[in-house]
Write the structure tokens for this entry.
Amino acid sequence: MTSREKILAAVKQNQPEPMELPDIAFLKGDPEGVIEKYSTTLTNVGGKVYRVAGYEEIAKIVKEIYKPEDRILTLVPELAGITNEAFQPSLTAHHWENVELAVIRGHFGVAENGAVWVTEELMGHRALPFITQYLAIVIKAEDIVPTMHEAYIRTADKTSYGYGVFIAGPSKTADIEQSLVIGAHGPRGMTVFILD
Amino acid sequence: MNTGEKEHAELADVFNKDEARVDWHDETLWWIRAKRDRSVHQLPEWEDLRETASKIKFNVLSNLSGYLEQFEAQAKANGVTVHWAADAKEHNEIVHRLISEQGVTQMVKSKSMLTEECHLNEYLAEHGIEVIDSDLGERIVQLAKEPPSHIVLPCIHKKKEEIGDLFHKYLGTPSNMSDPQFLTETARQHLRETFLTRKVALTGVNFAVAETGEFVVCTNEGNADMGAHLANIHIACMGIEKLIPQRKHLGVFLRLLTRSATGQPITTYSSHFKKPREGQQMHIVLVDNGRSVQLGREDFRNSLKCIRCGACMNTCPVYRRSGGHSYHNAVAGPIGSILAPNLDMRQYADLPFASTLCGSCSNVCPVKIDIHDQLYKWRQVLVKEGYAPTVKKIGMQVMTTTLNSPGIYRTAGKLGRIVMRLAPFAVNNGLNPWYKHRDMPTPPKESFGEWYKKNRK
Amino acid sequence: MRVGLFIPCYVDQFYPNAAIATLQLLEKLGCEVVYPQNQTCCGQPMANSGFEHLTHGCNELFIKNFDGFDYIVAPSGSCVLHVREHLHDEHDEAKAVDIRHKVYELTTFLTDILKVESLPARFPHKVGMHQSCHGQRGLKLSSMSELVAPAFSKPGSLLAMVKDIELIELNRVDECCGFGGTFCVAEEAVSSKMGKDRVADHLQHGAEYITGVDMSCLMHMEGILKRQGSNVKVMHIAEILNGVEN
């Protein structure tokens, strides 16, 4: 008998009588004021939010903050002007080690926790949102859902991704005496541009 | 740390030698409990969420074999290799084989309590594989050559000065440097090098979805992702109880997990791994290691609902004042005390007694595990199975005889009161554990029973 | 209404005043109270130590003593919880179930059955209320800090009827005192530390008295207070509600 067969047999023998799944449709959030709520929540967890009218405004903000010599990559075609370097797909992520800023698009934001849902086709490479020193994500103002329940309803028919992630703020840790430190292994900052 | 054969009470006694440190440990964890309270009170539907999560998990347990098969089929269809490990040994062997096949001797690992339970690091070290833990807290305890003392906050027992000393010794930071910001930055640089050079990455699994074959890993640091996305091969190890039926159920669990754990609305990263990236191998190791046995114990199977948030530890007044290492088990605190005896009743017979049964653990549990009731039930099982110390058995027998007979009880009570009233030294001596830090009550002249006889007919 | 008075063994032996106050209070409120004199203990000390199988004798005795009352009332949340959850009768389980449903902790009995709305008591002191775990979380005598639920307190609502009493706030409203039955000796270090911390919270907020529904927790804290040479006293809630001032 293989371990697989052994485990499955033991589980089958010991599991209790079938119990139905509860209905979770009653769990839903309040769509009122989600943009404000989103902004507050993300700010509380260390992120930064800009509400912008268009891509030019994003480009302007990026140029104000980052120096010309900073290595910037973007997967957003409308923002191609913020960098001299076009994103080159690659199987190894290691040469992105010194990227200062990566700007990508997100599918939508979640008001209750400040997260943005991103799947790998928006990242260029799975490692990019993590290896970059700073991360910026562009979402549309109409793309903010109240809670995680709406988030999973929204992604129900988009299960073709190989990798997807909710990102809520910069990388952080409080492992040393519970002192919050921003910038653990991933980005030291996370900015979300909410596009009207 | 080798705690040897010492029991919880003994290890807790040692921990309590430094009272200021106990106060610090207690306050730190209580602060996290308070953050949890603030966070959950913002959700009016909190108790409904807990109830729903508990029911979903019961559905999982009642159809675990079906969900395991469904998950395996989906994962395979996604291009993931699925392995089955009956116990810790087989788990370790599988991981070792996968590393060896890559022809490397190093691996980076993000947090996985399962690998702690299986003592994977020790096993791999014996076989010449160097493991670097990438979660900052885990890296710190790894440098200190200690196990984690908490499942979410591995080095919650360490002071920053001690961490500074470790970093000075192993990572070359200046001596007496204990600023958390500085130390974290040092770890970031040190581990970046590791992430960039390791070909094999291992992560734990927070949730695995039967419907789609994907698994979710939650971190604040981004270390699981840094490891997995930069390595050629990603090994994810999970206990078989980590399954949930459908994607939409993730909404319920992700809302509960971090609010319960640290009071955050969600972890910074909730990563959904479904398919290996191009050119990468992805492996899932499904581990039983006693879980199927626990599933068959009706009184204790609900412990398998645990989502490892650590809330029961933060709220436990005993955990806060005895430290995680006093539980001499990979998972400490109340939940560890109901999981451990399933693995080894003799070795962990003391743990269900390391509680006042105050019930706070059950109240904070996001999946409503009846933790304190299970502690009570484990006590009955352990005594019946013969794991009670002889002295206790004799004491209990004497107590039973006394209490079964009103006559003996009255005489014994009177004698006891006379002894305590006339000769406090006979009772208040060093051999009486009560008296070490507490005085005995002043005995009254008469019992209520005696008063009643005189004052009521 | 015939009430059987259930007095926990350690209250009988060490804290008769709490028992007398309970009796007088119930009588004052119009109950016919009887104290069955052959009672000893509910068996909780054995059960919580893992020896529930040794509690048959205690169960039998309990049923013999308390059969036939309309209600059974005890000045203890812990003992009542034990009886409610673990009283069995091999020969007549229906009788055990009946008794389990009739046994009440004193303050619940006052608020839920007698529906007391006023008391003639006066207690002009600063008092800290200790929430004993078995009463609070076990019998749900008051809202619990862990849960998202409306606030309430049965003992608190009764204390609010006492004239001139000043209830103090605590930093940790419902932390365990660390008594825990045999835990207090088996885990002496943690138990006494918990007791010290609980007492410190009351002292820090200026308590003159610490009260509660369970004498066992109060006995534990009294042991700590006395060792520290403190003048702060413990007093069972029945004594305050009965208006007796020592």
